Amino acid sequence: MNKVRLGLIGVGTVGRGVFDVLNRNREEICRRTGYEIVVSAATARDLKKARGFLGPTIKLHEDPLDVVRDENVDIVIELVGGVTTARSVIEASIALAKPVVTANKALIAEHGNELFALAKISGSIVAFEAAVAGGIPIIKSLREGLTANRIQSVAGILNGTTNFILSEMRARGLSFQDALSDAQRLGYAESDPTFDIEGIDAGQKLAIIAALSFGIPIQAERVYCEGITQLTEGDIRAAEDFGYRVKLLAITKRRANGFEMRVHPTLVPHDCVIASVDGAMNAVLVRGDAVGETLYYGAGAGAEPTASAVIADLVDVIRLQGVAACAQVPYFAFQTDRLSDVPILDMGEVECSCYLRVRVRDESGVLANIAGILAEQGVSIEVMRQRESNGSHAGVDIVIFTHKTNERSINHALKKIDALDSVVEKPVRLRIETF
Ligand code: HSE
User: Fold this and answer.
1) Which of 69, 128, 131, 247 has the fewest CB atoms within 10 Å, counting from its CB?
2) What's the domain range around 259?
3) For position 241, which CATH number holds?
4) Given 98, 105, 205, 253, the catalytic residue
């Protein structure tokens, strides 16, 4: 039996998951590939711990680049995270024409365009299924399963930490801070949760998804990112009263003049499937012109779900040995010389229905003033309702649902509403998506 020898760079949660799943499913994976897969070299931040976990036979290196250079390594598995060491590892693998499998979404989002170009020249492969939505095979689905389609939109819950927080806020009436503390205590959120709660993690994944959906370069810097830190349990409850749930959605859409790419808290009708995705789970809804709507659901993080994606890439890479580059599935799902330069739209050009909440002093003429400003900006009101104060604050809340409206118009209107004497707090705006 021929062997494939791996160099494992990073023996943390995911690295251990990969090692465990490879061992547990050795026979099954061998029947699929025709090869025995062995980890022959590795590196980790704590080599002593890694030795204890990996056993006595695997060669351990201090320098990750020595794993790449090790002549007993055929394929590199990069699981260190961050963009500095990881980038050097991937560039070194490419230079030596060794295929590399990575779970590193930040690296692919920021440097994927250059890395794929380099890999194409050297005849190497950079595989990254695990970089987006953990165990859900969304990269493979977009690149292969849906390849007949003109993709129209993708909307995803791509961050488990924030989905857990939002689920807790809704189910238990917790504040954002309390739900975040729970997420940290249970190990979902990191001690510095900024990337997750500010929507940056979801934005990086979205940039990769958009590139593969539309055949455009990865443009992470063009994603509009708004996190969940300003969200109150009161708004979650108000949304619920009107038949909506709040999710942090990552959305990309094809429009006549460009593509939308945005991450923000979003009201979705409570009876649509994505509304019922709770806890730390991920889901991705893809609409193609031929297939219609397809939904992918699963664990977006965790040792073995991520290992599932890493090993799927590994199996693909093994199967691709000896296959000419022109016969391989292209990185962006589209031929690299046929990428589109259709622009990413500015947020001001996005169109959405909105939920607005304006806290006002309860006095005559307030509603008329607010309605007047919205009318001036061409924003049409679908529902407007006054919610009585529960006594915990001065004033009353006016909740407004608008018809679909241009982001620029609503921004102008909100600025003017905020400046009204009778408005006592910065107005809240949440965008709505119906599927
Ligand atoms: N921190 C991410 C999440 C997982 O909460 O979904 C890794 O991207």
Assistant:
1) 69
2) 144-299
3) 3.30.360.10
4) 205
